[in-house]
Amino acid sequence: MSDFPQVQVADLADDAAILDIREQDEWDRGHAPGAVHIPMGDLPARVDELAPFLDRDEPLVVACRSGGRVTRVLPWLEQQGYEVANLDGGMRAWHFAGKPLETADGGAAQVP
Question: Could you say which of 64, 77, 84, 111 is catalytic?
Fold first, then answer.
């Protein structure tokens, strides 16, 4: 994981475009307002949805709950041509930092 940049939650805008690779139920309970959701298992089939990120000057920031899944996804995304970075601490760090979260049902957000 040390080969990839670590992005701190405090360095991101509240509406930053983050690739959230958590499962649907995790996403539904609470996600960053500007995030793009593609569960880790769906990435190979849906990677084309990330094409707008290819030409950006900054890396694509990838997040899961706390960082475990990201370690498996970053090398693969890099092989596909993306400049990538890990959201240090994942969505748990986002939540604990008091950053905004949206939910599928409009209820109280949770990032267990």
Answer: 64
> Please, are residues 11 and 93 in contact by the beta-carbon 8 Å criterion?
no
So what's the architecture of 6-96 in CATH? 3-Layer(aba) Sandwich (3.40)
Q: How far apart are CA 102 and CA 74, in angstroms?
A: 25
Which residue, chain included where needed, has tokens 């990120």? Answer: 53
- Active-site annotation holds for 20: no
Q: How far apart are CA 20 and CA 75, in angstroms?
A: 16
The reported pTM is: 0.92
For the stretch 39-60, pLDDT in tens is 999 999 999 999 888 777 889 9
| Domain edges within the chain | 6-96
